[in-house]
Amino acid sequence: MKKHQRILKNAEFSSIISKRKSFVCPAMIVYTAPKKEEHARVGISVGKKVGKAVVRTRVKRQLRALIDSVFTFDEIV
User: Fold this and answer.
1) Cα separation, 12 vs 63, whole angstroms
2) Contact call for residues 66 and 1 (beta carbons, < 8 A)
3) Tally of CA atoms within 13 A in the half-sphere of 35 that contains its CB
4) H or E segment at 29?
5) How far apart are alpha carbons 13 and 29 in whole angstroms?
6) Whole-angstrom Cα distance, residue 43 to residue 62?
7) Average confidence (pLDDT) over 1-24
8) pTM of the prediction?
């Protein structure tokens, strides 16, 4: 995923979470918001319950790879 396809700022995360549209499963919570741009944007936040920083970074990388394989962002942009 390229940087323009990610949600990186805390203010953006906070605004999405405050809208309270979410799906809950045992592994994670997925918050959604309507698109403001032509392409979808994804933000990944991993809590400290998952493990130390190295483990959390690995989980984020794996999730990004999974999202890239499911959604081909290059076709949209």
Assistant:
1) 19
2) no
3) 9
4) strand 29-31
5) 13
6) 13
7) 83
8) 0.71
